[in-house]
Specification:
The protein is an alpha/beta fold and about 325 residues long. It is about 40% helix and about 20% strand. Bound molecules: adenosine monophosphate and manganese (II) ion (2 copies).
């Protein structure tokens, strides 16, 4: 889908002064790490850079180098020359960060989601990339943009988290080659970063998992596993939105399970649905697109209007249909 070259983007980055770098709501390590890495490189070029995410910096990722650069968007729209959306499948997933960009001469869209329609003036959507961080690395290297330890650590965190610690199927030799360069040239301490990423969760996360497991269901001859989080349970436990990132992997990890689904009741009368597949013929992106969302073939999501039970039934039915068509 990319009709833009890294050279074209490199030229725009050098020729303009005021930038806004944006990422999707409910950010993950790939969105936040990619945003910070590109911002730090532009900062080294002497550019004026705002780094905005609707949710601001998450506590979980606040160890990332220069994390303080990433803030919630300003309440009043600010004019910038260039707005850059990273890791964001559809423009409205920028949330309030979208409205905060008052005017931008050029919109750049850099992403790896299959469902990205290619919004913006300059578009690089590389669905073969396991993380947006990998595309940012390629951009920085190919264009000779500034690179240093802090940029390397942000990119490493982006790639490590979006590949499930170098495990998911899009992880390939190139991913390891990039990781090697990040570790070597950036002088990274892998053990320390991994500990901050994977061994520094609040106790609450496990308490959420305990409640989720109580709701666990297996359907479609145990090929579909799901669990759900009600608003009440979330309130009782004082859950932070980021607490449940990755918990769905427990469902996918079960032998025989092809599709894992996590339902999270949201305050605005909607349910956030997270879906994972471990079979390429069961495309959860297609299922989620049908439900108004999007993502990747093996990891996708949607926000659906309705109550928890009602959405669960509707979604599990769609999954069952997809299973019948697929494997
Ligand atoms: P999650 O289950 O939230 O980790 O999301 C899995 C993948 O699907 C991520 O790459 C998201 O960016 C994408 N995704 C999640 N929710 C949506 C949505 N409502 N619309 C489009 N893409 C989504
Ligand atoms: Mn993401
Ligand atoms: Mn990503």
């Amino acid at each position: 889908m990319s009709n833009t070259t890294f050279e074209q983007i490199g030229k725009v980055l050098r020729e303009h002064q005021h930038f806004a770098i944006l990422g999707h709501v409910r950010p993950d390590g790939d969105a936040l790490g990619s945003q910070l890495a590109l911002a730090l490189s532009l900062e080294q070029l002497g550019k004026d850079v705002r780094v905005w995410n609707e949710d601001g910096m998450l506590e979980k990722y606040s160890f990332l180098p220069r994390a303080e650069l990433l803030t919630k968007p300003s309440a009043t729209p600010a004019p910038v020359d260039v707005a850059i959306a990273l890791d964001t499948a559809i423009q409205n997933r920028l949330g309030t960060a979208l409205a905060a960009v008052g005017s931008a001469t050029i919109w750049i869209n850099i992403d790896h989601h299959l469902s990205n329609p290619g919004y913006g003036d300059l578009v690089i959507v590389d669905v073969s990339a396991p993380a947006t961080g990998e595309i940012i690395f390629n951009l920085i290297k190919s264009q000779g943009l500034p690179f240093n330890h802090d940029i390397a650590e942000n990119l490493y965190a982006a790639i490590s988290t979006d590949t499930g610690s170098f495990q998911y199927p899009k992880t390939n030799a190139r991913t390891f080659a990039i990781a090697e360069e990040l570790v070597r040239a950036g002088g990274l301490d892998v053990g320390k970063i991994s500990q901050q990423l994977y061994e520094n969760y609040p106790r609450r996360r496990l308490e959420v998992l305990r409640e989720l497991l109580r709701t666990m269901r297996f359907t479609a001859d145990d090929r579909v596993a799901s669990f759900s989080l009600s608003l009440k349970t979330a309130a009782d436990l004082g859950v932070f939105p980021e607490d449940n990132e990755g918990l769905i992997d427990h469902l996918r990890a079960v032998r025989g399970v092809i599709v894992a689904v996590f339902f999270e009741e949201l305050a605005e009368g909607k349910v956030r649905v997270s879906m994972r597949s471990k079979d390429e013929t069961v495309d959860v992106c297609a299922i989620c697109q049908k439900l108004g969302g999007g993502g990747h073939t093996l990891a996708a999501g949607a926000r659906i209007r309705g109550g928890l039970a009602e959405v669960e039934e509707k979604v599990l039915e769609e999954v069952l249909e997809a299973l019948k068509r697929g494997s």
